[in-house]
Amino acid sequence: MKYTYPACKTVDTVEDWFGTKLPDPYAWLKNAKDPEVLDFVARENAYTDAFFPQEDLDAMIAQLKAQALPELPDSITPWRDGYLASVMHAGDYEVCVLDKQLRPTGALPEIPSLTGTIFRAAPCPKDDNILAVMLLKPGAPRLTVAVCDVQARQVLHQIDMVFGCTWSKADGCLYYGFTQADSEKQTSRTTYYRYDPATRRETVACEDDSYAIFGQEWASHDGSYLVAQICRDYAFGNWVSIDCRTGQVHRLTQEPTEWYYVDSVDDCHYFITMSEAAHGAVIRVDNDGNRETVLPESEAVILESGFWAGGKLFAIARRDVSACLLDIGSGREIPLPSEHCSLAPAGRAEDGMILRLESFVDAPQLLLFDGESFRTVLRSAQREHPDVVVEQRFAPSTGDGQRIPYYIVYRRGTKLDGKNPVLMYGYGGYNISMPPEYTESVSQTQVPAWVEAGGVYVHCNLRGGNEYGPKWHEAGMGLQKRHCYEDFIGIAEQIIRDGWTEKGRIVISGCSNGGLLMSALVTMRPDLWGCVIDSVPHTDMIHFAEDDRGPMYITEYGNPRESAEVFQYLLSYSPYYNVRETAYPPTYIQTGELDNNVPPYHGKKFAARMQALNRSDNPILLRVLAEGSHDRGKGEAFWRTIAEMHLFMKYALGEESTC
Asked: 327, 361, 381 — which closes off a domain?
């Protein structure tokens, strides 16, 4: 073996799971603050530091910064004579003040007592001096909401450990859900609260004792209603409406449903339902829970989300993953400025909805849609890529033969000689669809740049996501989770059969649930990959349920303590337990010490075991970010992490490869 890794002890730890004796020699790495664990991390980081020549690293950082696109604002909210918006830069968020043309004019007024990363700020509809500031405190597992008086520069009220909040125009109150999870008892409950900045009083708005992993809330466009989903899992939940004029709570469902809120008009609430229609239909629900279909299901498209603009309701839909836009009232399709694109609300303007559009060849841009037509209001870049070809294809999954969609992006004239470097990205989980994107989100590789330099990009739409509605999600969760990995492998084998590339020329990239995907793929089929970029991964699928957010995740993966069947299924693909003595490809594993979504022991244990059992001459590197959360780092740490990923890809594929 070419590499001599830092020494890492093993401890004879064995657990009994339904009669199965399960060794866990690296269990001791779970305690992040243990001095021995800190020493292990320090030595691993030093080893990874030494792998990358400083001169090459500095050059790559400079190159990445020069090529980076300006980030577009998001969560855009009218405020005073312009807007407030969130902008991400180098892995970190900041809140900006924008003018009417969405041009930055300044920063959020400083509140001296606030510490942490500020993600978003939303103004009180009745007093523009009052803002709800959402931030993540150092080391905190969840968001804090600070209700601030920006004129007095002081915090009026602070709410810790929440997922979000929203204001109501009708009463000027802030609404938020508070979720209490108990990982020991495997329970989780959500209660909704109302805070009135005028009286500085907080009261219970809605109580619910059903199992709920978190709550999501929306205010109607006119502010009359607060509509909340009390989420049982990442798709289903119970729905309530709160009349903000009277405080009355209306329970819209008696059983969990998979609905997506559009808006409320004339005391009725509009939802996209996937429970009553596999492809989605729009229903109108009154406060007594009575339902009426207003836009029937179509076999041609999958409905995704909706919004109000120009006095009408619209639905964003997907046709074989790419976005389309429908007028809910007439069912008419509104032509979009680009094909094979993604479309999502970015905020509300006084005269319409601000939408974000991007594709594999269109850099992100913001469009103002007034209910009739689009107007481009902001572009991240004005670029043309005439020689980049985008195709959607399908490949059989290796497990059950299901046709799996994927996009393949290549330069016109690319030879099918089996030698092209390929970058593959996938996620496949949590009911989240993966639409076209200009920049691959983990390594920050710009798709056209990769392709124009001679590479091929493959974007995988795996089961477990929401590309084709609830059944697509359910086919990749729980006791069907292995389908996600078989889908990805099926696509890889298809592009090899088609002559695009060969084994050992494929880079795979993913984070979070996509990191679990990467970890599972490298243990299942190490022969296929030329390089693995594995960011903030779940790897120990036997102990994840004991993590702080374990009660939230067992709805997606299953609870290993539930039965021998669930335990054995999770064990069959749990990456940490499936590392064996074999030849592994170059693998870069990255995690963060402050990650509460996926605690860093997952990456540490996995790296230690891979380093011990790898029988190839390929490097297995571990990067642990001291201040990293569920991300690639912030500021200069972000640029270094991304540069390491690019250099590692370049090393793995050879100097002639594209990066």
From this structure: 381
Give 317-368 pLDDT, tens digit per residue: 999 999 999 999 999 999 999 989 999 999 999 889 999 999 999 999 999 9
Question: How many alpha carbons lie under 13 Å from residue 620 in its C-beta half-sphere?
Answer: 28
Whole-model pTM?
0.92
- H/E/C letters for each residue in 474-511? HCCCHHHCHHHHHHHHHHHHHHHHCCCCCCCCEEEEEE
Residue 638: which domain range?
Answer: 14-66+393-653
Amino acid at position 576, single letter: Y
* Closest by Cα among 351, 349, 435 to 85: 349
Whether 277 is in a domain gets the answer yes
CB 613 within 8 A of CB 3: no
Same-domain status, 466 and 564: yes
Split into its structural domains, the chain has a count of 2
- The CA-atom distances, in angstroms, between 610 and each of 80, 428, 613 are 55, 24, 5
290 and 367 share one domain: yes
Residue 111 resides in a domain: no
Edge to edge, the sheet with strand 312-319 lists 302-309, 312-319, 322-327, 333-334
Side-chain-facing half-sphere of 571: CA atoms under 13 Å: 15
Of 360, 340, 344, nearest to 437 by C-alpha is 360
Q: Collapse the DSSP code of 137 into the 3-class scheme (helix H, G, I; strand E, B; otherwise coil) and give the result.
A: coil
**Helix 564-573 vs helix 482-497: crossing angle, to nearest 10:** 30
**CA distance readout (Å), 60 to 52, 67, 180, 380, 641:** 11, 11, 44, 22, 11
First to last CA, the chain: 27
61-96 per-position pLDDT tens digit: 999 999 999 999 999 999 999 999 999 888 888 899
